[in-house]
Structures are given as structure tokens and as C-alpha cells.
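Workshop exercise sheet. Pairs work together: one partner reads the sequence aloud, the other fills in the structure field after running the prediction. Swap roles for the next sheet.
Pair: D.N. / O.F.
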Amino acid sequence: MRPDPFMAALGLEVRHLAPGEAVVAGVVGESHLNLHGTAHGGFLYALADSAFALASNARGPAVALSCRMDYFRPATAGAWVEARAKEVNLSRRTATYQVEVVSEGKLVALFTGTVFRLGGDAFPGAGEGVPSGQNSGWEEEG
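Structure field:
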């Protein structure tokens, strides 16, 4: 699987990956804060969208048709945040995913996204799963 430069720039890592599911996580850093001193909505959206993209493309190439996100509570600087994507509907041409963004055991935001499935093979290694806590294939090359 090819590294994702955008995820790397945000300090995000893949914690789990299997067909139809993914967990992406990271720490809310100083550069991720808004004017209130809490995690910027764009950072949380990027976190959720990354898990959504991985979960949906683990079955084969897919592109987003629609996405929405509801925010429930702030995430603070230094907090560990996880986006947990789960497939809730799969058909021949579309699939829908729900992504819970969680911090300190509480639901911070809920993302829902639908993809159009293009057909074809999943990216290499997607069907094998990434055990929880592993960041296999996503390390920066140097």
C-alpha cells in the first residue's frame, strides 16, 4: 500500500485496516487548533475522511459521492483522537460508511459517507488487514 502524504503531514497513522473498516488516529497538535484552542473542524474532518477512504478503497477503487459530519464536542490540544470507520451498506456499485471520531472515550463527531465503487482490485495488502496498533506500509521513507 502506498503512503498517503496528506495523512503523514497531519501526523495521522493507520491503526487497523480490513475490507470495509479502518481506524486512523493521531494527536491533536498545536498546528491543528482553531481560534478557540480546540481541534479545528477541518483536522477532525480530515481524520474521519482518511478512515473513510481507507475502509472504502480496501474493497477496490472507490470515489466519494457524498459526505457529512456532525460535531458534538471539542477535542483539546494533546488529545489522542481516533476515527473508526465501519461499512453500514454495501451494494454492487455503492457503499456507505459511518465513522465515529472518538477522544478520551467520548464521541466527538460522526461522519457518514457514500462511495461509488469503480470496480477492480483493492490496493495491495488491503485484504489482509492491518492488526490493531500497526502502521504497516505507512512509515515515511527516508
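Discussion prompt: DSSP finds two helices and six strands in the chain. What would you look at next?
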